[in-house]
Design goal:
By secondary structure, the chain is mainly beta. The chain has a single domain, classed as OB fold (Dihydrolipoamide Acetyltransferase, E2P) (Beta Barrel). It is flat. The relative contact order is 0.19.
Length: 135
């Protein structure tokens, strides 16, 4: 389980079979603190590679942007490969099983208001109409 901020806009690819795969870089930060003897321990940021598949990847493509806060649950996987110089490299990734967007709608750093020029019509909620209450 991780809670962190998206470091850059998601990278979304589609396989030949049409399956969506999204990669998100998530930053988690451990706050700095002071020990009893007065020693300062600085804050520490870790960067995590999160992989989303299928429907979650499509959701990430539409709604997740740089700076958004996410809660992610998943499995940690490490793989290795040989780089161009023949050196063995290791990559640790989180394969997401569940995700919740914690940034309120319209607050994200990269989100722009929808307009008629974008081709997307605003969606009205039944709760917005005081004469049409859902109960």
């Amino acid at each position: 389980m991780l809670i962190g901020n998206v470091g850059k806009d998601p990278d979304v690819r589609y396989l030949d079979t049409g399956v969506a795969v999204a990669t998100v870089v998530l930053a988690t930060t451990e706050r700095g603190y002071r020990l009893q003897n007065g020693t300062e321990v600085p804050e520490r940021t870790e960067w995590h590679n999160i992989i989303f598949w299928r429907g979650m990847a499509e959701t990430v493509e539409k709604y997740v942007h740089k700076g958004d806060k996410l809660f992610v649950e998943g499995k940690i996987r490490t793989r290795s490969y040989d780089d161009q110089n023949g050196v063995k490299r290791y990559v640790t990734e989180i394969f997401a099983d569940n995700m919740e967007m914690l940034t309120p709608r319209g607050v994200g750093a990269q989100q722009a208001p929808q307009s008629a020029a974008s081709g997307a019509a605003p969606v009205a909620s039944k709760m917005d109409d005081k004469d049409n209450l859902p109960f």
